[in-house]
Amino acid sequence: MKKTIAILWLIQLFLSSSLSWGFGSNIDGAVKRSLIIPGPPSSRAEFISSLVAASSLVLFPLGSNAFDGGVGGLGKTRPQTGVVFRDEEAAASTTQSSSGDVTYELLAPDGSPAVVSFNAPWPLLLTASGIESRDISGGIESAFVQVAELQKGSEIKPAQLQEAIFNSKGKFGMYGSPTDIRIKKIQAGSKEGPAIYLATFTTLTPAMRESDRKAYISASIVGNGLFLLVTSTTAVRFTKLESSLRRVAESFLVVDAPKTNLRNQK
User: Fold this and answer.
1) Nearest to 203 by CA among 187, 221, 215, 191
2) H-helix or E-strand containing 263?
3) Of 65, 67, 91, 219, residue with least CA distance to 156
4) Is 123 left (phi over 0), alpha (psi -120 to 50) or beta?
5) Is the CB of residue 85 less than 8 Å from the CB of residue 264?
6) How many Cβ atoms from other residues are within 10 Å of residue 212's Cβ?
7) Which residues pair with 230 in a beta bridge?
């Protein structure tokens, strides 16, 4: 019994140090209080209860820092979206309008500046990986911007969209590359609007379960930049939300930016 009590005190010392270093910032007050050991336990039941509470926190921490990855923000690493802001300071202070409008100035891979805008019913997320509007209540519906390089004069092909969006380093590839990918063009692009494609695919969730999804891919070109807006949800919810998702996809607009003297202009 004395040896076990000594182990319990060592666990308490470790947890106290962890809390002082900030590792236990998510531990609630009730659990913290249960770990305070003022003296020898008055009963065997009390002793065992304290030991279980302390050891469970060591083996199964209650909280951890979240990563900015994957659709819904739950990824093991930061996804590569290709987004480069023309002025990072201005981008950091950009907000979404009350009607859902989002506007940014971005750079194509060759440095050509572009004004990118769209309208979405979900809140704009302040992430380090790019531009994303997401339904934070469930995290199922989202619209995010992807930028890829395209040779000037080249036509957009489904294979290029697949490579840009569905690779293992993108938002849908955080837990493995998507499978069963099918992309078809459903609207031609024009000066007034983007080309729109419909994609169906299967991706893995954080629990490593397969999830069938559908996405509208809006595509426009400025310089050698292929600017994409990917608006997606699960295949099950797509039929019900198809019209609202299509409105988001059609709202995507990319135009040459004015030749201003912003800091990051090339």
Assistant:
1) 215
2) none
3) 219
4) beta
5) yes
6) 13
7) 144, 217
E strand residue ranges, 108-209: 113-119, 124-125, 132-134, 142-149, 179-187, 195-204
Place of tokens 């069963």: 180
Positions of the chain with pLDDT lower than 70, given as ranges = 1-77, 127-129, 260-266
Angle formed at CA 264 by CA 260 and CA 266, multiple of 5 degrees: 75
152-207 tens-digit pLDDT? 778 899 999 999 999 989 999 888 889 999 999 999 988 788 999 999 999 998 88
Which tokens hold the place of 218?
A: 């809006």
Which residues lie across from 162 on neighbouring strands? Answer: none
Asked if 86 contacts 131 with a C-beta cutoff of 8 angstroms, the reply is no
pTM, 2 dp: 0.70
Q: Helix, strand or coil for residue 131?
A: coil
